[in-house]
Amino acid sequence: MVGRLIVVLGDQLSLDLAGLMAGDMSCDVVVMAEVKGEGTSVPHHPQKIALILAAMRKHAEALRGLGWRVEYSTLEEAENSQTLAGEVLRRAAELGASDVIVTHPGEWRVLEELQALPLGVTVLPDDRFLSSHAEFAAWAEGRKELRMEWFYRYMRRKTGLMMEGDKPAGGQWNYDHDNRKRAQRSLLRAAPVRFAPDGVVEEVLALVEARFDHFGALRPFGWATDRAQALAVLEDFLTHRLATFGDEQDAMLEGEPWLSHSLLSASLNIGLLGSLEVCKAVEAAWQAGRVPINAAEGFIRQIIGWREYVRGIWALKGPEYLAGNALGHSRALPAAYWGGKTQMACVKAAVVQTRDLAYAHHIQRLMVTGNFALLAGVDPAHVHEWYLSVYIDAFEWVEAPNTIGMSQWADGGVVGSKPYVSSGAYIDRMSDYCGGCAYKVAVKVGEGACPFNLLYWHFLMRHRERFAKNPRMAQMYRTWEKMDPDHCTRVLADADTLLTRLEAGEPV
Ligand code: FAD
Ligand code: DLZ
Ligand code: SF4
After folding, report:
1. Interior CA angle at 201 toward 199 and 205, to 5°?
2. Start-to-end Cα distance in the chain
3. Is the pLDDT of residue 345 over 70?
4. Can you tell me the distance from the alpha carbon of 334 to that of 94, in angstroms, rounded to the nearest whole number?
5. At the N or C end, where does the chain have fewer CB atoms within 10 A?
6. Both 310 and 350 in a single domain?
7. d(CA 107, CA 42)
8. Listing from the earlier edge strand, what are the strands of the sheet with 99-103?
9. 235: CA distance to ligand 2 center in Å?
10. Is 366 in the same domain as 498?
């Protein structure tokens, strides 16, 4: 007879997980399960499945090393269930357990599935986040707008990160005006640390190769799959890329997928690193004079600001948030997103990189693939499924508010006061993609016109009612009014033709 079952999910690989802290090593049993259903709930990128399975296997060993009894089901074991709930139930019957402890999952579907178990299920808050559901709800209470910047300042005060008393270090909360530079090609840019597969990873790669036929290349696989490797990625970032993180945050360069980004999201999201330890390491690098203030502040804002904020929105809005479609968009996702042909150099670069690396950085996600899907009026549910599938770091709690809220404005403006749309000019300013594109970014209409240019105006016109009075967008409507009416008619007609071609499944 055993005590309770402590369920540890594939993105809960932290030794101080709430479920473990609440458990009793002398009688409780940790249950971990590789199940096909979690790999196929959406067609997860093969590298993401491999990361999770390899990290789970290593974590189970680490827990055993600490003295926990771990009952671990591998995907190879034929008698196993296809679902997490089925596997927990099977273990409960096998061990004679009737109570289960679960740390709050990061996907509503998983929470509902586990709560429906015919067992005593206790769900504990996931205290790996710096702000709890209750705290975020209290912060949000009574506010007309839930702007990230205000939440960020609250979190700076709460954590004390980069604070001098009650004032922000350096006198400013936000150094973004020093950021957003165009990237320069540099022979000195160090490639980030990657890891050759060890025995555990090799085993899992073979398994994923045999069991999953999803979009995305499985090899080469170089992600950190244990805490020691994740700490090495952090150290590599602090030493080689943090100093230029702010400057290059929004830049895009052909053939340079990583630039000055940290590559830490997957390690943070599956629990190999803690968000506070990462922020403290960044703060210490700034205090030691190793990196400028705009870099350190910019990075810390992404973590205690954006990361915590989107989790708060996800928790506050609940499962209904996933069905948001404020703009009534209904087109299918272009085949180009799943590797189909496209002549748009920027979209192609982002998708090829996504296919090969399971990674694209924030501006590629927001201003290339996200921007195009929004301009083209793609159903946000399809966009959500794509983003949840293709990235190494994609988990619903963080992906959904970024996609449905920030990127597609499908939540009607909860996350963003205005939609993130731009013409080709923005992409041209922040990247070197346009020079090698079949389209011409300077061409606004007719032969060779950049699709972003056409669809930008089409978007603004089809949503005129909603956005013309938005103070942050009114200027664009005034610009349109001043344009030659014949030109405007041609832009909208060309955009309609483009959308018809997209609907017919033609490559654009
Ligand atoms: P860096 O650029 O080095 O940033 C540092 C860290 O800040 C990241 O590791 C991440 O933990 C955090 N961060 C930065 N921006 C955000 C943000 N907007 N929301 C939450 N955390 C942020 N991030 C995910 O972790 N998982 C997702 O599924 C995800 N989906 C996204 C979908 C869309 C449409 C968009 C626009 C953004 C999405 N992001 C997501 C946010 C961001 O793009 C990634 O966190 C980042 O690209 C990860 O790479 P990095 O670790 O090199 O990040
Ligand atoms: C994403 C994922 C995958 C691919 N496989 C597993 C698995 O086999 N077992 C498991 O416990 N978790 C897996 N996960 C992560 C879960 O889907 C994750 O806990 C939810 O997405 C909630 O964030
Ligand atoms: Fe993208 Fe337009 Fe530039 Fe081509 S011209 S890379 S489609 S922004």
Report:
1. 120
2. 62
3. yes
4. 47
5. N
6. no
7. 12
8. 69-73, 29-33, 5-7, 99-103, 120-124
9. 27
10. yes
Mind listing the pLDDT tens digit for each residue in 66-115?
999 999 999 999 788 899 999 999 999 999 999 999 999 999 999 999 99
Vertex 198, ends 196 and 201: CA angle to 5°? 100
Q: Show contacts of 20-25: CB within 8 Å, 24+ apart.
A: 20/63, 20/68, 22/101, 22/122, 22/124, 23/101, 25/66, 25/67, 25/68, 25/69
Tokens 């597609």 — which residue? 408
Ligand 1 contact, 387 CB (< 6 A): yes
Buried b (16+ CB within 10 A) or exposed e, 170-209: eeebbbbebbbeebeeeeebeebbebebeebbebbbebbe
120 and 140 together in one domain = no
Is residue 177 very low, low, confident or very high in pLDDT (cuts 50, 70, 90)? confident
- At residue 1, does pLDDT exceed 80? no
Closest CA to 19 of 80, 90, 102: 102
Please, are residues 181 and 222 in contact by the beta-carbon 8 Å criterion? no
- Helices marked H in 275-328: 275-287, 293-300, 308-317
How confident is the model at residue 187, as a pLDDT?
66
8 A C-beta contact, residue 55 and residue 270: yes
Q: Is the dihedral of CA 449, 451, 457, 458 positive or negative?
A: positive
Among 454, 449, 258, 284, CA closest to 362: 258
Strand 5-7 and strand 163-164: pairing?
Answer: unpaired
φ, ψ of residue 389 in degrees (nearest 5): -85, -45
Residue 355 lies in a domain: yes
Residue with tokens 């680490």, as numbered in its chain: 62
Eight-state DSSP code of residue 195: -
Mean pLDDT of the chain: 97
- Ligand 3 cavity residues, CB under 6 Å: 344-346, 424, 427-428, 433-434, 437, 439, 441, 450-452
Taking the C-alpha atoms of residue 407 and residue 392, their distance in angstroms, rounded to an integer, is 18
Look at ligand 3, atom 1, and give the residue with the nearest C-alpha: 346
Range of the domain at 173: 133-192+241-317
- CA dist., res. 73 & res. 399, Å (int): 27
Q: Which residues contact 164 (CB under 8 A, 6 or more apart)?
A: none
- If one residue of 128, 308, 393, 397 were mutated to test the ligand 1 pocket, choosing by the most ligand atoms within 8 A of its CB, it would be 393
Cα radius of gyration (the chain): 23
Distance CA 361, CA 262 (A): 10
Residue 60, ligand 1, Cβ within 6 A: no
Asked whether 403 and 380 are in contact (CB, 8 A), the reply is: yes
CATH number for the domain that contains residue 152:
1.25.40.80
